[in-house]
Design a protein that fits this description.
Blueprint (H helix, E strand, L loop, with lengths): L3 E5 L6 H11 L6 E4 L10 H10 L3 E2 L3 H9 L6 H8 L4 E4 L2 E4 L14 H7 L4 E2 L16 E2 L10 E4 L8 E3 L2 E3 L9 E8 L11 E6 L12
Parallel strand pairs: 1-2, 2-3, 5-8, 8-10
Antiparallel strand pairs: 1-11, 4-5, 6-7, 9-10, 11-12
Bound molecules: manganese (II) ion.
The site of manganese (II) ion (MN) has 6 residues, from loops.
Length: 221
């Protein structure tokens, strides 16, 4: 079987589901495994999940919850875990795929990111009509969801952060957070690797049902 690029949605400490999902996928040597971030917080097994991800050498991009917990409660982590979290990139590229935790806006250029824009990559959902990112309390000014106006200039973006009932596909992006920690599913998108360009039309999704509801939230979406 040819090499694959396997991209996991938000894990949020749901280690048992991650292990069950990887059992279905059966990653082999040469496969590239990437997490969209939000490894921790809200779920049952933060530290065990971190250790597992480090040990299994899964690539991770930085999620808003990874950052939040690291800054809010650094004492909960070992030095190794702290430096792992602090070193997470804000995006990761494999050929024409770009993995980002939340997404991008038309005003952001990945080659030249300010610190504020780095944070936006971990948080963006809705934009106003000038394509500025809206804070949750401003969502009534919602003009669009970021992926509706993304034109593909930074590659095909695979992201998490926003919970969908099933993966969300737009022309140049794929949302893979299906809300495991909220009792829904942990999903991976699996692409065939190619030296030239990865075919973003023919991916497969593989999911694992959550074993329980770990976190209840009115603001799930
Ligand atoms: Mn999340």
């Amino acid at each position: 079987m040819s090499k694959r690029v396997i991209i996991y949605g938000d894990i949020h400490g749901c280690l048992d589901e991650l292990i069950a999902l990887r059992h279905k996928i059966a990653p082999k040597k040469g496969d590239i495994e990437i997490s969209v971030g939000d490894l921790i917080s809200k779920g049952p097994k933060d530290l065990e999940t971190l250790e597992y991800i480090i040990q299994e050498k899964i690539i991770v991009v930085r999620g808003n919850n990874d950052d939040r917990l690291l800054h809010k409660n650094p004492e909960m982590f070992s030095e190794k875990q702290q430096s792992f979290l602090a070193s997470l990139p804000f995006f990761y590229r494999v050929k024409n795929l770009t993995i980002i935790h939340a997404g991008i806006t038309p005003l952001i250029n990945l080659a030249n990111l300010s610190e504020e824009e780095e944070q936006e990559l971990t948080k963006v959902r809705y934009l106003d009509k000038n394509y500025r990112l809206l804070k949750p309390k401003e969502w009534e000014k919602n003009f669009c969801y970021w992926s509706e106006v993304y034109d593909g200039r930074e590659g095909f973006i695979v992201y998490g952060h926003h919970v969908f009932d099933r993966v969300r596909e737009d022309k140049y992006s794929l949302g893979v957070d299906t809300g495991c920690v909220f009792g829904k599913e942990l999903t991976a998108a699996v692409f065939k690797y190619s030296k030239k360009s990865i075919d973003t039309d023919s991916y497969e999704t593989i999911s694992q049902q959550a074993f329980k509801v770990y976190f209840e939230s009115k603001k799930m979406k």
